[in-house]
């Protein structure tokens, strides 16, 4: 099984300098164009058999553009959503630093963002959907997973069995793609954050 992990295109939050997370911003015109270029590239080189997507607007629209290009089933999975950042969602970053400053040394892993989820909750959710995908969708040779930067970074920690407190960060740019394989040979990373379609 191959998993093609795709981050959504540029969203309105990206240009407003606000915390996004569960704030449900739409794609910008640039984001939609990025998604169209990604969809054409995927159609030509890494066509999936099914698409799984976060239901948040920016990911759902990106996945919809991909679905239009390749004509396959698209299923929304709530567990593919970005970190539930509670009171920070949609808040300007400068304002958030004043209203909700991080505790000295950072927020403990088990402590949730007010009205949101903790890093431990987030990792558990990522682990849950990772195992659901490899079990419930095992009949597919290649699956596209359209989600968010923070989710994808956490997904790689689950994929590589890294500890929850690992300092590793797996960056994904707008409509960046990662291809991984799960087979008898093990868990294989084929490429990370490919953005050739935007060049």
TrEMBL record:
InterPro entries: His_Pase_superF_clade-1, His_PPase_superfam, PGM_Phosphatase
Protein name: Histidine phosphatase family protein
Source species of the chain: Bacillus mesophilum
Active site: residue positions: 8, 82
Domain of life: Bacteria
Binding-site list for substrate: 58
Any Pfam family hit: His_Phos_1
UniProt GO MF annotations: phosphatase activity
UniProt cross-references to Gene3D superfamilies, sorted A to Z: Phosphoglycerate mutase-like (3.40.50.1240)
GO CC terms, sorted: cytoplasm
Record PANTHER family: BROAD-SPECIFICITY PHOSPHATASE YOR283W-RELATED, HISTIDINE PHOSPHATASE FAMILY PROTEIN-RELATED
């Amino acid at each position: 099984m191959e998993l093609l992990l795709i981050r959504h295109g540029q969203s309105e939050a990206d240009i407003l300098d606000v915390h996004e997370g569960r704030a449900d911003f739409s794609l910008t015109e640039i984001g939609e164009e990025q998604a169209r270029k990604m969809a054409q590239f995927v159609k030509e080189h890494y066509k999936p058999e099914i698409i799984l997507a976060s239901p948040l607007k920016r990911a759902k629209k990106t996945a919809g553009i991909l679905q239009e290009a390749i004509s396959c089933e698209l299923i929304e999975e709530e567990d593919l959503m970005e970190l539930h950042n509670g009171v920070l969602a949609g808040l300007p970053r400068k304002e958030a630093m004043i209203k909700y400053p991080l505790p000295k040394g950072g927020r403990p892993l088990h402590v949730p963002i007010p009205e949101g989820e903790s890093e431990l909750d987030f990792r558990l959710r990522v682990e849950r959907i990772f195992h659901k995908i490899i079990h419930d969708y095992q009949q597919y040779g290649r699956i596209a997973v359209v989600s968010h930067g923070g989710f994808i970074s956490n997904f790689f920690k689950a994929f590589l069995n890294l500890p929850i407190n690992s300092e590793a960060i797996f960056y994904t740019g707008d409509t960046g793609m990662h291809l991984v394989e799960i087979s008898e040979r093990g868990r294989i990373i084929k490429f990370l954050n490919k953005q050739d379609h935007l060049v």
